[in-house]
Each structure stands twice: as structure tokens, then as C-alpha cells.
Amino acid sequence: MxxxxxxACLPPREVTRPxxxxxxxxxxxxxxxxxxxxxxxxxxxxRSYTPPDAPLENYLGMLDRxxxxxxxxxxxxxxxxxxxxxxDALAQRPDRLRGVAVADADVAPALxxxxxxxxxxxxxxxxxxxxxxxxxxxxVPLSVARTLAPEIxxxxxxxxxxxxxxxxxxxxxxxxxxxxxxxxxxxGRTDARAGTGTEGFQSLLRAVGDGWCWAxxxxxxxxxxxxxxxxxxxxxxxxxxxxxxxxxxWGGDWPHPRVEGEMPDxxxxxxxxxxxxxxxxxxxxxxxxxxxxxxxxxx
Length: 299
Fold this sequence. Notes:
By secondary structure, this protein is α/β, with parallel strands linked by helices. The protein has a single domain (about 20-295), classed as TIM Barrel (Alpha-Beta Barrel). It is about 35% helix and about 15% strand. It has ten helices and twelve strands. It has an eight-stranded parallel sheet. A hairpin with a 2-residue loop joins strand 7 and strand 8 (about 135). The mean pLDDT is about 95.
């Protein structure tokens, strides 16, 4: 059998400084990745995509450009189970950064405690299917969460889930049974053309509204192909804000790996957040208070 093709990703666009008012002090971008440099942190051989090197200094430059004090680095599947690039970044900037790692079922509890010391605050699991198969190689399946749930709970961490909301209704019982805070990536990563009335997205709204589940107001460029303003993604954002702004965080998804369509501009994505979230109190919760609570930043 031929080896699966490894797609090369485009580099991120140069970030424009947002024209809107600056974010509040201690604003946090809760979804980004560092990749490489590959000479120091090689990419996994069994990966779905090859990103351009996106090292820590580039990410911090992006944060500075859009005016954010804090960031959360999420382990990207291009590095597989090797969290080294992300952990190295956390060790360099413990004042600014927190992390979400991946781990197999046999990970040593002592290693998880060391990650906690470095700033890891959650584990990410992959339940994102296309054509009956997990769409990204290198991720950890949700089934592993059952084994790791006691350790996650003891550390006060959360479970981050990469899922298409079409599969959420049947997954909710398993998630609730774990007794952990759950964070859903990218507004549920649905297709914006399906609209907000689907059973899957409505189940996400109820979960967020009930308070046991969080959602990331990120990935408009993954729901929609209508760059650069993604108007058909806006109803999803607004519905989540209307459901419960106490359980939402925002992320730019830099450096936007494996984007299908036009590469977004992180500065413009933040402008869209401000435009789509006009209430200043809600903005402060989503950008500052909520991520401080979820990721353990000082108030």
C-alpha cells in the first residue's frame, strides 16, 4: 500500500494591526500552534500535513501585533505525540503562555505533573471524522480519555475536543460520564452552509448554555469559505455568545494549518470578533476573565 500523501501547508499571512480598539489588558488568544523549527523539533513521520516552521518568536510577534498579552498553545498533530516544541515554548515564557498537550493512555502521572508545572492545563483528543476515518493522523482518540480522566481531574485540567458537531449528540453521554470540563474547538467545526439549526450545533448551544461545556469562538475560516469576512460563520458566533458568554473563549488559530481556502489574517480575525461581539462586558469575559479561569492565568 502506498504511503499517504503528506500535504504541505502555506505559511501564515503577514498580520495586520487591527484597526478596531485595542483588546483589554490581559487579553488571551486561546488557540494557536508552534511548529518546529524542524531541525530541532522534527515533524512526525505519520502526519497529515507539513506546516511551515512557526516557532515561538513568530507567535509572540503575532500576539504583540494584535495587542494580546497572553496565549494558549495547542499541540498540533504535525508533531504527533511529541509535545516538545510546545513545552519548550511554555518553559521560555511562563508569564505569557499556557498549553494543551496530547498524551497516550500509558503516560506516566509524574510526567503529567511536570507538564502541569510548565503550564499545561488540558489534554486534546481527536474525534473529527471524515468518511468514517479520523481526519488527522497523529491525534489521540477520545477513547483514551476514559483512562486518563482521573489524572486530568486531579490536576484540575480540562478535555479539549476536536469534533464536527454532527457527531456531538451521540458523544455527549460519554463526555458527561467523564465528569471533566470539556472545551469544543472551532465552534464545533461544522460547515457554515448547514446553518445553525442542525441537531449537532443545537446540542452544542445547549451544552454551553447549561455550563458544563466550553466552546472556542475560533475557526470562522474553517466553517466558511467566504473570506475575508466569513459572513456565514457569524450566526454561529452570535448564537454561542447568546447561549452563554461565561463559557466562551476566543482564538485566532495561528498559523492556520491545513486551511482549505484563503489564508486568513489574524489581525482581521480579531476585528471580526469585535464586530460580532459588540457588548463590551461579553468581550471582557471572553478575552480575559474566562481564559484566566480556564487556563489558570493570574487575575
